[in-house]
Amino acid sequence: LYITEGQSEEVNTQHEVRQLERTSKKSLQDTPIRCQDIFKAFSEQQKKIRVVLTNGVAGVGKTFSVQKFSLDWAEGLENQDLSLVLLLSFRELNLVIDEQLSLLTLLHVFHPTFQKIRAEDLTVCKLLLIFDGLDESRLSLDFSNEQVISDVTQVSSVKVLLVNLIQGNLLPSALIWITSRPAAANQVPPSCVDRMTEVRGFTDSQKEEYIRRRFRDEDLSKRIISHIKASRSLHIMCQIPVFCWISATVLEDMLTPDQRGELPTTLTDLYSHFLMVQTKRKKQKYGRHQRAEELTEADKEGLLKLGQLAFEHLEKGNIMFYPEDLERCGLDASEVSVFSGVCTEIFRRESVIFQKSVYCFVHLSIQEFLAALYLFHCFTKKNKEVIESSLKLSQNHDPLQSVDFFLRSVMVKSLRSKNGHLDLFVRFVHGLSLESNQRILRGLLKQTVNHPETIQKVIKNLKEMNSDGISPDRSINIFHCLMEMRSKQSLRSKKKSKKKLSKIHCSALAYLLQMSEV
């Protein structure tokens, strides 16, 4: 994995996919740092490195870096000056959000094998505490108005303990490593952080190495690499190891000797195929007499319930779910466990302490795709309650009246997001309006018949929404929505003109230049 010191700019105003696009052009200019060296001061630095904050987009390898560091230490390969390395994930800390604990008790609860550790041991040993996944936290960290705690046996709330650890009031000799997605990283004040690092994922050569290692068939690996390289957006997204795996999974299934039809070139196309590939594999393993290519009513119902869960929590900004969250969407936890065991590529169960399960989608983009799928399903089924409560339109506007008005309403909703967290979601919604993608999903969505004039209305709406009040990043996302609808030609001028370029044309040109190989 490629890790650099420092942090990319403008991380809080862009969707993570856009951040990848920007950083992909800068990687050659950045100084890499090994995850094993993040607490080592460079020769010109005098200040001790006590608190490190590592950020990176979803699925890029932050948790893997933590595990690699811990394994190398445990095997005696690196950082042998540390006496103890303890990992505490925020998804587990969420389970004790209402508890009153001392730091010593907290460590005993999450690491029962260290019950013999005493308070005085913590103060004299060189300890590293790793807090993984700040973006998954449901704790509200307040660095301006929390009580001061300096005793490891003093009882308080978990959030107060964390703030005092980071500030150095509690166990000032301990090293602290926090990982987070970019949007949540600003919860920790810069004044409390001694070093910022960023996990960038796979380099270009590592993408190819991953595919060659996965497929022994040299011809197949070459064809997959060639197709990924041909699509600049897919190639950039493959910086994320999980996305590289998704792309390889789909292309492996499609690149058969009797291959028919086009290979996916848009994200909606790719994720639609991915959903069907995983469902087909599940049927081949457990379906017995069921045809692998067909979706049963139970399949559809299960996927749409997962879509509802994905949609409702995407709006809230949650990526981790608990049994009560499943129940609110009509999902039985035991049924989901069976489903996730079969289809771990879509949804997985994380076993944690207290006999309570935590659930998550394998990658944020899968949650965004299923959320878009659910909302478009609600549109085709004329589910007025869900559509109106989600889009929050006035009574004079009916988003169910037409596809173009519905898509316009979804775009308006996404533009209200300050950090662009709905950008990929809205791209998927536009992509799902195409009959070609609806056909891939084999009855999961009721097919909509979109006449050419309807598509032109959608394109016209997107262009009109690209007004002076739209930020450059939102302009680029409007361009992406056009690309998901396979409307490249709509960005081309029919003839040369001396008129000033529209904002969407300028954005498109700037984006294409940025994404070019030169």
Automatic annotation (TrEMBL):
* Record domain NACHT: where: 50-184
Q: Where does the protein end up?
A: Cytoplasm
GO MF: ATP binding
Annotated GO CC locations: cytoplasm
Q: Which UniProt keywords apply?
A: ATP-binding, Cytoplasm, Leucine-rich repeat, Nucleotide-binding, Repeat
Q: Which PROSITE patterns does the UniProt entry name for this protein?
A: NACHT (PS50837)
Q: Extract the Gene3D superfamilies matched here.
A: P-loop containing nucleotide triphosphate hydrolases
**Under which name does UniProt file this protein?**
NACHT domain-containing protein
Q: Per the UniProt entry, what species is this protein from, by scientific name? A: Tetraodon nigroviridis (Spotted green pufferfish)
